[in-house]
Amino acid sequence: MSGLLVMKFGGTSMGSAERIRVAADICTEQKSGRPVLAVVSAMSGVTDLLLNTLRHAEGGDEAGIGSNIEQLLKRHLDACAELALGEGVSEGVRDLVADFRRLAHGMLMLGERPPRSVDEAVAIGERLTALLLSEFMESRGIRARAINGSDVIVTDAVFGNATPLMDATRKKAQQVVKPLLDGGIVPVVTGFNGATADGRPTTLGRGGSDFSASILAAALDASELWIWTDVDGIMSADPRSVPDARVLDSLTYSEAAELAYNGAKVLHPRTLAPLIDRQIPVWSKNSFHREHPGTRIVSKVDAPPGPRAVTSMANVALVSLEPANAAVSGTRLMARALEALADANAEVLALTSSSYRQTFCFLVRKEELAEAMKSLEADLALELTHGYLKPIEVDENVGLLAVVGEGMRGTPGLAGRIFSAISKEDVNIIAIAQGSSELTISVVVRRDGLERAIRAVHGECR
Ligand code: ADP
Ligand code: ASP
Ligand code: MG
Q1: 219/101 same-domain check
Q2: How many CA atoms lie less than 13 Å away from 421 in the CB half-sphere?
Q3: Range of the structural domain that residue 348 is part of
Q4: pTM of the model
Q5: Tens digits of per-residue pLDDT, 310-352?
Q6: For residue 266, how far is its CA from the centre of ligand 3 (angstroms)?
Q7: Distance CA 373, CA 277 (A)
Q8: How close is the Cα of 11 to the center of ligand 2, in Å?
Q9: Which protein residues touch ligand 2 with a CB less than 6 Å away?
Q10: pLDDT (tens digit per residue) in 85-141
């Protein structure tokens, strides 16, 4: 839709009545010139609270469920009151919280958390904020409508980390959302969730509201996507670990995607993929500092080639495999191991190998480790029991550091400078994965040295 602006408001930008008021102001301001669609996250901390409640349910802790639900209800009813929303809206909040309670109690009875029910339950955080923002806009005379993302975004059935089916989503977006936009109404769509074609609820992975917004921007041919968060844009490092990190004026899609994939929480890893073909520009902006322009993400930027940003992932584990004798083909083992990881839906974040000893190791997310190991041990059971493969080693005391920048390959001596900056800090380098991507150098280091290594590399790359 020509001129459409999609805006996503993150957890802190939805975190209180005051922040919801600001989000409504931003929507109102932009709507005067063009159609606007809002995508909302749950209030900050709410998704964690919901997931924690479901864990209590699985563990049979009824009191834990009760006190969490009380908190959930209070936070949203307080916001209703502060926004001076009527009894009808408070009733809507109570209904959604009751839906959540029903799902949690189902899990309590079962003593387990079926993934599809988890996805249905956890999206209630976003349904609550979509209700509050849309009703608040209506109360101000701006026409708005809360939409459940599961009525628009069609996904595969990988619960907890679903992938959108773009053709089906495009059709739904045309049916469900487009008429609202044509009628001058602001659709306020829940981020994070979707549903399979046969209606089973799914979610897009933690932090997935960014992805929801980009999926909708692509499905509706938006002219821009603005992502409102709590920092002035994409920075040269996470300001929480590097105090002198700088805001970047602009980044290419590839740079931003590499940063996101390598742990920069400011964007969900898959956010940019739907936008690249359609060349939809993205802005990352601060809802606490609206006058700052933010960071523009487009296909080409003017910046000189070289490192632009440093990022890291702390919750990772290194899994190493080594054949026990030279008769075993390392390549075949690697193929089998990768297949086992794929079966477990575990993503390989980095992979290195040594041709002489035929050993190889790969980095996976800690939350995917248990499934990955189960699958590896099952698929390689014969090799392990007959002694062709040494016991699989896991090192959880590691972290990944990545330096990202377009044209970095052409910067002579850069890798050397990065490695010596890390060693000057006395941080052990465990593995290096350079070269698979033109614009990223990734280094696996000891976990306890990760923060020091990031600051040192950031200082070196300035
Ligand atoms: P939201 O709820 O708005 O989606 P997130 O907490 O998911 O916000 O993401 C914003 C946070 O990302 C920032 O507060 C910042 O600490 C973190 N972050 C990590 N890496 C970067 C980076 N390179 N630039 C900016 N912020 C970053
Ligand atoms: N609320 C979800 C989460 O915390 C999605 C998001 O915030 O993007 O993961
Ligand atoms: Mg986020």
Answers
A1: yes
A2: 22
A3: 309-461
A4: 0.94
A5: 999 999 999 999 988 777 788 888 899 999 999 998 989 888 8
A6: 6
A7: 36
A8: 7
A9: 11, 41-42, 47, 125, 191-192, 206-209
A10: 999 999 999 999 999 999 999 999 999 999 999 999 999 999 999 999 999 999 999
